[in-house]
């Protein structure tokens, strides 16, 4: 799953997380102290830059940031449009 591997790299680089500990089931929002509001903005910017997508404020919902898998699915959908 190429998107998941890219997402692991982005989270690792953006938030300073250990890539080896990340999986699709890794909880993000509310479970990870590193992912505060400012880090979320930085993560969105990194996703936009890496995948060449635009994420509007209205498109950002907590459900997308529930787990690494849900965030990966969200990005995958954005890259298809």
Jot down its keywords:
81 residues, single chain
What's the short version?
The chain has helices at about 1-15, 35-50, 70-80.
Termini gap: 19 Å
Total count of strands: 0
Mean pLDDT: 91
- How many strands, which pairing sense, and closed or not: the largest β-sheet? none
How much helix is in the residues?
40-55%
From the helix content, strand content and strand pairing, which structural class follows? mainly alpha
Number of helices: 3
Summarize the helix and strand pattern as letters: HHH
**Rg, nearest Å:** 11 Å
The global form is globular
Hey, roughly how much beta strand do the residues contain?
A: under 5%
Low-confidence runs of at least 5 consecutive residues: none
Structural commentary:
This protein has 81 residues and is an all-alpha fold. It is 52% helix and 0% strand. The protein has three helices and no strands. It has helices at residues 2-15, 37-51, 68-80. Helix 1 (2-15) packs across helix 2 (37-51) and helix 1 packs across helix 3 (68-80). It is globular. The mean pLDDT is 91.
Indicate the topology:
Elements: H1 2-15, H2 37-51, H3 68-80
Helix pairs in contact: 1-2, 1-3
